[in-house]
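Sample intake — Anterior gradient protein 2 homolog
Collected from: Pagothenia borchgrevinki
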Amino acid sequence: MIKALLSALLVLVAVSSAFGKYIPKTGKRIPQTLSRGWGDQLIWAQTYEEGLYWSRSRNKPLMIVFHLADCPHSAALKKVIAEDNDIQKRLDEDFIILNLMYETTDKHLSPDGQYVPRILFVDPSMTVRADINGRYRNRLYAYEPADLTLLKTNMDAAKKLLKSEL
């Protein structure tokens, strides 16, 4: 009896976890190791240079997420972004995305210092959008789990600026 209940509970949990996850229009994709948990169904650029190339050739803004595997703030932000279907859909349809666990040599990607987590936007003309930032004065590009609404607003701004400038 207990085994049957446990089996039924396991099946119920497995089925319920399948609902609610973002699935791209093209259908479910094989999870990429490049996602590092930020969105397994998304296509991630492997390097900054590749992200710039895709951004320019597809005329989409590049969103770069700097994070560390052992940072609790990065882990908390990753969890809410990965679980938010609206953000996952926007990332899939409107952005080229890259997550980096190391700093680049490009000084434009750390306009106010090197800290994690931070999110920067780069337009297809390869201009870092330093004007699109978060709510903190001492860490302009930092976001916390409670800042998802601001992140969505900034994602919209990156798209609108792209359309109005090109």
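Post-analysis note: The helical segments are 2-18, 48-58, 72-83, 85-94, 148-165.
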